[in-house]
Amino acid sequence: MQKMGLTVDPNKLVPIPTPFETLGMQDPNESSDEEMDVTEIPKLNQRLNNKNRKKKVADELEEDAIKQRQECKEAKKNLKLSTEMSKFVVFMIETHGNDFESMQKDSKNVYQMSSGQIKKLIKKFMSSPINKNAYLRSIGMITDHDMIDK
Q1: What are the contacts of 18-25 at 24+ separation with CB within 8 A?
Q2: 91 and 69 part of one domain
Q3: What span, in angstroms and rounded, lies between the C-alpha atoms of 78 and 56?
Q4: Helix, coil or strand: residue 60
Q5: Total domains, the chain
Q6: Which DSSP category does 35 fall into?
């Protein structure tokens, strides 16, 4: 049967199923004379359990995603700076010490970084164990067996 053309009431032509119909049950409000079939209760419980399982799986996937994001953030913290940036930071530290204003005005500051940006870069450089160990080894403060893990 084709359903084409004009109609007075489209809801009668194409009915929208109620939530009870989608679960395969009868609406208890519509048929007060008939009682609910006892065999339908286990089916309803099984469908509800399936929904709970899906919710648990979704929650587990969300927790895994959060853990992976945290691991990525931790991995980014330990990233090594490029060789060029490392040389720039080492030069600035050796030349100016902790004077970030003079670092900003230095002619070697071809990146035109502000004093705050240079300070953050040095902090990032020193927070990485790889960079810090390499720098301390180069100035002779530590040897290979004295390397800092963190």
Answers
A1: 23/47
A2: no
A3: 34
A4: helix
A5: 2
A6: P
Number of residues in the chain:
150
Amino acid at 39: T
Q: Contact at 8 Å (CB) between 49 and 42?
A: no
The domain of 61 spans: 39-77
Give counts: helices (H), strands (E), the chain: 7, 0
Task: Select from 67, 25, 71 the least CA-distant residue to 45.
Answer: 25
Check residue 22 and give its pLDDT: 76
What values do phi and psi take at 51, rounded to 5? -65, -40
Q: With beta carbons less than 8 A apart as the criterion, state whether 92 and 131 touch.
A: no
- Regions of the chain short of the pLDDT cut 70: 1-4, 28-41, 43-44, 74-79, 143-150
Is pTM beyond 0.70? Reply is: no
Q: What is the Rg, in whole angstroms, of the alpha carbon atoms belonging to the chain?
A: 34
**Could you tell me which of 122, 120, 140 has the C-alpha nearest to residue 131?**
122
Q: In terms of domains, do 56 and 98 share one?
A: no
